């Protein structure tokens, strides 16, 4: 027959050997819960576009006359592909040629991989780059897409507009 007092003595001795610090344990659990919440918030921010592509990243800028609307991603990743979409109103496509001006800040921060439709002419100006596009149908709305990748990271302030008019101002942040 087993002696119950002997078993109880052994259990007391075993529990005495294992040191418990419940205050430290509760602090550890709290730190873990805070860590899980932080990871969840970062995941939600990433899915929403705060860290790159997504609804919070999509943005739009217009020139002062409303003849040009620019769609772009406000948050981008360094060297990742992105698209800049220019939407021109019928007033902007009044002549046979449309001149688009891109500021130095934009040209320095972004590498233009491809432009659709291709410009007829491109030239360097004292304040940036100017592209000349043939108007497919004068008096009708048109769109131009710039396929880009970023050259540097950080905050980028840029301007894109019709030559001789007030430009649309773009504000982007490029993550490393």
Explain how this protein is built.
Keywords: Membrane, Transmembrane, Transmembrane helix. By secondary structure, the protein is α+β, with helices and mostly antiparallel strands. The chain folds into two domains: 28 residues; 118 residues, Immunoglobulin-like (Sandwich). Helix content is 27%, strand content 42%. It contains three helices and eleven strands, in the order H-H-E-E-E-E-E-H-E-E-E-E-E-E. The termini are far apart. The mean pLDDT is 85.
Structural class assignment: alpha+beta
For the biggest β-sheet, the strand order reads 3-11-10-5-8-7
CATH topology of the largest domain: Immunoglobulin-like
- The proportion of strand residues reads 35-45%
In DSSP terms (H or I, runs of 4 or more residues), the helix count works out at: 3
Secondary-structure element string: HHEEEEEHEEEEEE
What is the CATH architecture annotation of the largest domain?
Answer: Sandwich
Largest sheet: 6 strands, mixed
Integer tally of domains: 2
Poorly predicted segments? none
Mind telling me the CATH class of the largest domain?
Mainly Beta
Radius of gyration: 30 Å
* Shape, principal axes of CA atoms: rod-shaped
């Amino acid at each position: 027959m087993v002696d119950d007092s002997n078993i109880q003595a052994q259990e007391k001795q075993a529990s005495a050997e294992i040191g418990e610090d419940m205050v430290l344990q509760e602090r550890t659990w709290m730190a873990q819960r805070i860590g899980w919440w932080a990871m969840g918030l970062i995941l939600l921010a990433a899915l929403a576009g705060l860290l790159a592509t997504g609804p919070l990243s999509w943005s739009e800028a217009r020139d002062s006359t409303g003849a040009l609307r620019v769609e772009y991603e406000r948050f981008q990743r360094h060297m990742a592909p992105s698209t800049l979409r220019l939407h021109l109103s019928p007033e902007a496509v009044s002549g046979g040629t449309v001149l688009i001006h891109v500021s130095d800040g934009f040209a320095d921060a972004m590498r233009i991989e491809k432009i659709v439709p291709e410009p007829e002419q491109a030239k360097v100006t004292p304040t940036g780059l100017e592209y000349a596009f043939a108007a497919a149908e004068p008096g009708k709305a048109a769109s131009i897409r710039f396929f880009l990748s970023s050259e540097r990271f950080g905050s980028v302030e840029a301007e894109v507009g019709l030559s001789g008019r007030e430009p649309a101002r773009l504000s982007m942040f490029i993550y490393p």
